[in-house]
Write a structure and sequence with these properties.
The chain is mostly beta strands. The protein is 0% helix and 29% strand. The protein is built from no helices and nine strands. The strands form four sheets. It has a three-stranded antiparallel sheet, with no helix packed on it. A two-stranded antiparallel ribbon has the order 1-2. Strand 6 and strand 7 form a beta hairpin. The chain is elongated, with a radius of gyration of 15 Å. The protein starts with 7 loop residues before the first strand and ends in an 11-residue tail after the last strand.
């Protein structure tokens, strides 16, 4: 993980070598625990979750998927009371809490 983005990481070939910066394919985030690029819904990246995404909206962490960010504007939105959870994978509000890591408090 590069500690600046959700998609960047350094490849180090030895403890003495200088790391080479790489990035995950579009639409994925780097999970340092798994040491691989993964679906953003499966890893709570603490940096800007909208970067490197083809999605219009991304869940705000620590909100139990009740808030999301509009990536184009940065505006924070909430879903209506009738469907209070934002499903980041399907890009829609729902009345069922999505089973994704990003929805965990």
């Amino acid at each position: 993980m590069d500690h600046a983005t959700c998609f960047g990481y350094f490849n180090c070939y030895s403890m003495e070598s200088v790391g080479i910066w790489n990035q995950c394919p579009s639409g994925t985030h780097f999970n340092p625990n798994a040491n691989q690029c993964v679906s953003p819904a499966t890893y709570q990246c603490p940096y800007n979750r909208c970067n490197n995404q083809n999605r219009a909206n991304m869940v705000i962490l620590k909100t139990e998927c009740r808030k999301y960010q509009v990536c184009a504007t940065g505006k924070i939105q909430s879903c209506p009371i009738s469907a209070p959870y934002y499903d980041e994978v399907n890009q829609a509000c729902t009345n069922i809490l999505p089973p994704y890591a990003v929805c965990a408090l």
